[in-house]
């Protein structure tokens, strides 16, 4: 009986698979962009993650990163990546699961995404591009605080 209770309370978190779900690279100004002597584009980074519950305690987490570089109004390059992973998560509470899929899993996926993006940009003929580390713990906490603030501001729902 004690072994059954211990097995029920066991927490397990493992990576089942890491993969690229979607990936695109565009350089609409090529080859004219390579004639420019000066390289000083403005880059913009957009980052988000999503989570889907699957069967057998599997959770798919998708980290979506978009990087675009512009010289003035002209797009120099645009990279869009969906780096995904299947994670087995067993024995965690709902709050713990939220932190796992909202912070831990994207943190695990980010190095793979960073490598894929840097490689595509370099293979596109551009100088080395390094994505700086991202604090997913802080982003998750900020999202939780924003959700709590939004919930506090919404008027209570009346039922009759």
Q: Any overview of this molecule?
A:
This protein has 160 residues and is α+β, with helices and mostly antiparallel strands. It has a single domain (11-148), classed as Bacterial Protein-export protein SecB (Roll), CATH 3.10.420.10. The chain contains three helices and four strands. The chain has helices spanning 2-9, 94-123, 136-153; strands spanning 12-26, 42-53, 58-71, 74-90. Strands 1-4-3-2 form a four-stranded antiparallel β-sheet. Helix 2 crosses helix 3. The longest helix is centred in the C-terminal third of the chain and has 30 residues, at 94-123. The radius of gyration is 21 Å and the shape is globular.
CATH class: Alpha Beta
Number of helices: 3
Stretches where pLDDT is under 50 for at least 5 consecutive residues are: none
CATH structural architecture: Roll
CATH homology superfamily: SecB-like
**CATH topology type:** Bacterial Protein-export protein SecB
> How would you classify the helix and strand content by structural class?
alpha+beta
- Rounded mean pLDDT is 90
Which radius of gyration do the C-alpha atoms yield?
21 Å
| Strand line-up across the major sheet | 1-4-3-2
Count of distinct structural domains: 1
Query: Which shape, going by the Cα principal axes?
Result: globular
Sketch the topology as an H/E string, one letter per element.
HEEEEHH
Distance between the termini: 48 Å
Q: Please provide the count of β strands.
A: 4
Residue share in helix: 25-40%
The largest sheet is: 4 strands, antiparallel
* Share of residues in strands: 35-45%
